[in-house]
Each structure stands twice: as structure tokens, then as C-alpha cells.
Amino acid sequence: MIISVKKIFSLILISTFCFAGCTNSSEFYVQGLVNLESQQKDKAAKNFEKAIKNGSSVEVLLSLKELEKLNIPKSKMLKLSKLAVNSKKNPEAETYNYYLQSLVDNQKYNQVIELASKLLLEKKEINVDWAKYCYVFSLAKKENTLENPIILSWLTEEKFSKYQIKFFEEFASERFFYDTEIGKRTNLILQFRIELFNKNYNFALEKLSEIFESLDDVSKFSPQMISDFGKSFLYGNFEIIKTNFNIETKNEFAQKIKVIADNLNLENNSKVQKEKLFYLYFYAGRLFDKTGAQFYNNAKECFLLASENAITNENYDNAIWYYLNQSKKESYSSLMNGIKKYGNFWKDKFYYSDLLKDLKLHLLSSRQWTAFCKFYPTIEQVADEQIKSSWAYLTARLIKEEFVSSQNFASYFPSEIFRKIFENTHSSIYYQIMSAWQLGLEPKNILQNMCQVSDFFSLDENKTTVICNLLDACIKYKKIQSMYKIIQQYKKYLSSDVLSFYAKKLNQDFISDTNLYPTILRVASSAFSSDGSGKDEELLKLFYPRYFYDLVKLSCKEFNLSESLLFGLIRSESYFDEDVLSSAGAVGLTQLMSPTASDVARKLRIKDYDLLDAKTNITFGSFYLSDMIRLFEGSTMLSVISYNTGRARIRSWVKKYPNVPMDIWMEMLPYEESREYGKKILSSTFIYELLYYGEDSYHTVQKFMEY
């Protein structure tokens, strides 16, 4: 249902009231978290038990998760998890996972079989793989045999996961894996599937000659097993295939798999048969691809045949993606023809975004301006909103700059395209800003776009109230990280109004705690990505905050930087997390690498420094950015991309792509990270300028566009 603005505010009022005195059940759970923090595990367990007995389905599930970590006695966990699923009208689906686990732990196999079969039949939102494991495990324990068809099918025919491995480890020493032909064969197939799952492709391949004598036997297995065989063929050493199956060349092998599919195609057209055909043709195509350019057409034929036999949208998109990728290897013209032919049949537009980004980069970097603009109508039909807005913006810019003949695009009006991008709130903020700039719209219009009201569809108003009570309790007991985890888990129940309320509350109560800055920002971000009417300028200022203001102001004055630029950089680099360490080794608020920091320290004549110290990090980052601006003679965009990528690359790219406006040049860069970084910093700087400095924000855009 659509939840009204009036109702949303009533929820916030309820939340405010609850904050003054939270309900017991909410407090029990959060007090348990507080007990854990102080290592009072017994007290924590008692509070979680109280939450299970007295709380809502949400509090019950969260408490069960914590109790599992505490390793309480199995019998007690069974009692509590049983209470959790039986005493609540609509228990959370995940609660059943804990009840199943407890039944298994307490050897209640008949009850496991009954409950798991019921859950699987009702198709509840449970962990299906886990439920199947519990079901099959209990069957095997009860019957002490593998010969039940349900057990055999799960082990040797269905999708493989860590749970089949868990089953094998549990029963590996049982005689039924060794005493019968069925047991021995199941053992062999499981060993193959485990090796494949662990990506030990050569070991997996070695097992195949024991599983079937001839490649023709492949089609006798289940679709999932054919997929498994295909992966081992594709990623294993071809020398093993040559030795075990008397195959001489990769081309011959790929052709053999296709022939198996062709012969199978003559049989009945059942769902299982079509799925077998999909995998046979799909992996034949992948194998042809590995044989070289002379067999690309064979690969494309197989991918199309696979798509014709796909019984799921995901499989269809997978086959067509590989067909288009194969076309790209032939030529980008072939890729474009393929997109025109099959684009309207795509099931998930996002599945193909990487191909479209690659095509966009190729056409721009090779200066095929006319081809780029001519392809715009196709992009409008087939692409996701982000790709569409970027392609539309660049088409309008190329026409406006007269990089293409206006006669060829007489029906394209740049101003209309820019307006369409600006008015589409699904467009990225960068292209909205750039389009508004091109149109000369009031900068404030950007903020209005960001704060648009949208209907919030409430899934369960009672659950929203319960979650608010929990969030209030987390604030009361200062368990802010736990609060954010709850928001992440139950965000679909929270409107932007509710999330905005909590972002503002956190900022008000914890502004002095610098460790919480990233969390406050993330809650504000959650509010902006949710529907509702809670987006306003106050929330925007939490989404684009000026944390560490005094330090930023000091550094900007010392190194002659724009405050909005430095705030935009810090927000983009670290989300104001002063302790963050990237996987690449970049440290702190401005994400400095160790060699860069050493160089800056030498120039500033500082011997001892700590990059996790906010003042030091901001000082070093500011100096480095100002140094880039000096080296690039005042060019903001070249400087910020250099901050991310390195100045040597920037200089080479400027030489490689000369005589184009900055916004078009940036789209020609070979690395997506570099392209997106420039857009991100421009957008953040623009919004900071607009929110806090009251200056002409388009002056910021203009500065970014100068070489």
C-alpha cells in the first residue's frame, strides 16, 4: 500500500515518543548487545531470551542470531527457536533456519523432514539450499542409505553448493558410500563436483573418464551436471581431454559437443531437454571461442542456439551476452548490428551495461562521432537509465560542438536532449548538473531534483514501528553501528522520512564523535535512495556534510584551495572515515598512498607523521592536490583525475586525445575509474558550492571544464 505523508509523520512521532522510553522488548535486545560489548555473556543471553519471549518477529530473529554466536546449549536453543516460530503470527522467514539447525543439532530428524518439506513446498523466503541440506541430511540419518531418489538427485543432479560438501564431510566414512555400486558412483560424482566447486579443474577433469566412458554419454546426465561438465571442459587442461577422450584438437572437441546437442535436438522438446540443449550449445560456443578467430562464427551460432533453448531469463541473457561479446571480437560494427537485432529482447538491461560502456568508449576514443550519434536511438530503446543519460548527453554535446554534420542530425535538438536528461531523476547527478549548465537553468533546480517527493510503498506498517523502536533503543544505548546494520537489513520498511529523522537525530546527538561521521553519512545516503517526502536541504547537508570543517578551512587557506573542492574530494575518497584503509593501501580521509605521503612529508619538511591523524592527512592531501593544480597550470579536472590516476597518465592522455572539450575528453579515458572519479568530484564540488557557499555553482563547472 502507499503510505501517506500523514502516516509517515505519525510513525516519526511514535518513534520520538518511544525514544523517551523504549518498549521493553526493544531494550532487551539492545541491552544484550551492550552486555556483549562489556563481555557479560550470561547477561547478554538472558536479555536475548527475554527479547525472544516478549519481542516482535524482528527482535526475535536478531536475538537468535546473537544467541547462536554465544554457543548456548543445543537443547536451550531448540526450545527458544521453537518458541520463535510458534509464538509469532508471522515469524521472519530466516527464523526457520535457526529452528531447522536446532532440530538437526538435537537429532529430531522426523521433525526436520516434516518442517523442511513444508517450507520448500510453501516457497517461503528461506535459505532454500540450507533447507534442502537439512531435509536430505535427516533422510540419510534416518534411512542410513543413499538409495533414496531425493538424496541421489540432490547430490548428483541439482545445483552444487557448500551444503553438498558439508553433507559429504559428514557422511564420508559411512559404508553406504563404498559398499554398493550406487554408493561408489555417487562418491565419484561428488569428488568431481567438489574439485570443480573448489576450482581444481584439472583434478575434476581426471575424474570424468571414470564417470562416463564416451563423450556421447554426457547428454544422459541432468542439465546441472552437463553445466558442471562444461565448466571442467572449459577451464581444465586440454591435454587431459586429448588423453582421456581421444580428441586431437580443440575445434574437434567443440564440434563434438555441438553434435551431441544436435542429435539430442531430434528428441522430445521437454523442459529438461531444452535445458540440456542450452548447456550443451552454450559450452560448445565457449569452447569454439577458445579455438581462435576462424571459429568465431561457430561460437556465435552455438550461443544463438543456446538462447533459443533458454528456459530462464538469466540463461537467455547469458547466451545473448556471449553472442554479442563474440561479435565484438569480430568488430564493433558487428557488435552494433547484434545490439540492434537482439537488444529489444533483452530480459535485464543491466546485464549488458559493460558491453555498451565498452562500445561507447571505443566510438569516442576512435573519434567515430557520427557513428556514436547515429546509435543514440538504439541506446534509447535498449539501455538502462545510466547508459542512456550518458549517451544522450554526449550525443547532444557532439552535435552542439559541430563534431558531426548538422544535416545528418536535423531532427536532434541538443537543448531538448539536455532537458530530457535533467528532468529524468534516474539520470546520474553528474549528467543532470552538466545538462542544467548547458541549458542555463538555475542551479537550485538541481537541489529540487534531488529532493523530489515520491510515494513510499509500505510493506508492513507494524514492522516499521517495531524497527523504529529498535533504532531508538540503539540510539539510547549508543549502539550506532548495530543501528546501521538494522537499517541495512530492513531498509525496505523505512521511508526517506523515517531515515531522514534518524540521520538528523544522529548528527544532533553524536556530532562530536568523529568515528560516527561515516555512519551518519550512510544513513543520510539511505534516506536519499528511499522513497518518501523526507528529502530536504537539511538532509542534503548531512549527505554532503562539512565534517572536520576547521581543519579543511585551515588547509584550504594555507594551500589556496576551494573548500568545496576539498570537501568534495574527502567525501568521495573516504566518506569522512579517518581510519579507512583501502585494499590498494591508501590511508585516511584523503586516501594517500605511502610513497605519495613520503614525498609530501619531504617537501613540507616533516619527519614524523601519522596518516591516521585527521589534521596530518588533510594537510598532506591538500598539499598534494594543490601541487597537482600547480603542475597542470590551474586545470581542476586534470588535477583531480591526476590525484586518482597519476600525472604521467594524464599527460599522455592529453596528448593522445587533443582538441576536444574537457567533458568529452574525460569520456575518452581508457579507465572507468578515472572517468567516474572526475565526474564524482565535479558533482560533489558543485553541490557543496551550492549548499554552503552561495556562489555561482556553474563557475565551478566552468573551472572544471578548463584545460
Could you please describe the fold and organization of this structure?
This protein has 707 residues and is mainly alpha-helical. The chain folds into five domains: 7-198, Alpha Horseshoe (Serine Threonine Protein Phosphatase 5, Tetratricopeptide repeat); 199-330, no CATH class; 333-454; 457-543, no CATH class; 549-704, Lysozyme (Orthogonal Bundle). It contains 40 helices and two strands. The protein has a two-stranded antiparallel sheet with strand order 1-2. α2 crosses α27. It is globular, with a radius of gyration of 30 Å. The chain starts with a strand and ends with a helix. The relative contact order is 0.06. Mean pLDDT is 93; it is low at 1-6, 8-14 and 16-21.
State the gist of this model.
With about 700 residues, the protein is an all-alpha fold. The protein is globular. The relative contact order is 0.06.
**What would you call the shape?**
globular
User: How would you sum up the major sheet?
Assistant: 2 strands, antiparallel
Strand order of the largest sheet: 1-2
The stretches of 5 or more residues where confidence is low (pLDDT under 50) are 1-6, 8-14, 16-21
Overall tally of structural domains: 5
The end-to-end span amounts to 52 Å
Number of helices: 40
Level-2 CATH architecture of the largest domain = Alpha Horseshoe
Indicate the multimeric state. single chain
Overall helicity: 55-70%
- At the fold tier of CATH, the topology name of the largest domain is Serine Threonine Protein Phosphatase 5, Tetratricopeptide repeat
Radius of gyration from CA coordinates: 30 Å
- The CATH class of the largest domain, by name, is Mainly Alpha
Task: Work out the number of β strands.
Answer: 2
Structural class call reads: mainly alpha
Average pLDDT, all residues: 93
Strand content: under 5%
